[in-house]
Amino acid sequence: MSVTPKEIFDAVWKLQKKKAYDLVQQGLEEGVDPVAMLKEGVIAGLQEVGRRFGIGEYFLAELVMSGKVAEPCIELINPYLPPNAEGAQGRVVIGAVTGDLHTIGYGLVTTQLELNGFEVHKLGIDLPSMHFIEKAKEHKADIIGLSAFLVTTIPYCKEVVGYLEDMGLRDKYKVIIGGTECTADKADAMDVDGWALNAVASVPLCQHICGKPVDAAELARARTHDHTWWYNSRRIKGAAA
């Protein structure tokens, strides 16, 4: 019997690296649809890891491990995909603002977004505000991601928004923030487009901002008291108030 995407899904969320890889390899040899193996197997498995992380069943170690499980599987599948089969979700530039030297947070966000079909450009740490805008132009980004782990770096997130407004580019790029000192309330006060509590939450946030489908329950939860991500309904077209 041929390998099924469900078997790959189970191996990914259970963090069985060798088994997941071997199943993908076997599936390719057997002619199993590579798109199904990617979307219903690997990507769905990552989403299950994210769900378990969200409810406290999995922790940071499992989240990091899931990326290590999925990456070789995706690399194995990619050459077999028809053009644009992976359906690019959107383009993101991301980095740490002026005065912020932390990499692990936005590094995890980068991994989660890439594994879910986003094109992500990591810009680095301790970056001047204009650098984000210049790179957004260069890479034709949809989203500018700002990481701020220190309370002293929060004003630089607002500075990026201010520069975009002054340059007449505010509606061209969506701005999202994250980091220890970032909250939904602060994001709202700065009038950015979104905030995510962690790397897993950044995926539905960016999907929603880019107009991609998001699970209805997940979208509804984004507006409740126990949310892990928030979107600016004043700025995101089609967003519920």
UniProtKB/TrEMBL annotation:
PROSITE patterns reported for this sequence: B12_BINDING, B12_BINDING_NTER
Keyword Metal-binding attributed: yes
Keywords, in A-Z order: Cobalt, Metal-binding
Gene3D superfamilies from the UniProt entry: Cobalamin-binding domain, Methionine synthase domain
SMART domains: B12-binding_2 (SM01018)
Alphabetized InterPro entries for the sequence: Cbl-bd_cap, Cobalamin-bd, Cobalamin-bd_sf, Met_Synthase/Corrinoid, Meth_synthase_dom
GO biological process annotation, one example: tetrahydrofolate metabolic process
GO CC annotation terms, alphabetical: cytosol
Gene Ontology molecular function terms on file: cobalamin binding; metal ion binding; methionine synthase activity
Pfam family, one: B12-binding_2
Domain of life: Bacteria
Residues covered by the B12-binding N-terminal domain: 1-89
Domain named B12-binding: residues: 89-220
PANTHER family: METHIONINE SYNTHASE
Annotated protein name in UniProt: Cobalamin-binding protein
